[in-house]
Amino acid sequence: MSRYKVLVDSSVWIDYFRTRDIPYLEHLIKEDLICTNDVILTELIPSLLLQKRKDIVESLLTVENIQLEIDWVIIRQYQLMNIKNGINKVGIPDLLIFQQIIDQRITLFTFDKHFRLLKGLHHFDLVMNRN
């Protein structure tokens, strides 16, 4: 990555597609500061195609895609730490995103409460507000 980027989680995109009212996301898009990954695209694209929103799919595919470097041992360690600390039901997609933002030091923009809980255990940059 050549400069600061923010990984926009599917929870934010879904809300944005529905309301078009997330000023912070608008700012990130305008400044070309957003990025995505294959987990997020895989969560979004099938539903968008069923809704015949090919225009949105094409736009999403132009966003910088940060490659995942999955380390299953680390993923299991994160999940074990989560469970030991009472953070249950963090799904594999969120753990993959979590590993990526930790390893690659990427800021995450999400509305998913799991990440707020994970913030209490790990140091990473997190944005959860709409403004």
Short account of what is shown:
This protein is of the alpha/beta class and 131 residues long. It is built from seven helices and five strands, in the order E-H-H-E-H-H-E-H-H-E-H-E. It has a single domain (6-127), classed as Rossmann fold, CATH 3.40.50.
How many alpha or pi helices?
7
Largest sheet geometry:
5 strands, parallel
What is the distance, rounded to the nearest whole angstrom, between the alpha carbons of the first and last residues? 25 Å
Total tally of structural domains: 1
Helical amount among residues, as a percent range? 40-55%
How is the secondary structure organized here?
Layout: E1 6-8, H1 10-19, H2 23-30, E2 34-36, H3 38-50, H4 54-60, E3 64-65, H5 72-84, H6 92-103, E4 107-109, H7 113-119, E5 126-127
Parallel strand pairs: 1-2, 1-4, 2-3, 4-5
Helix pairs in contact: 3-4, 5-6
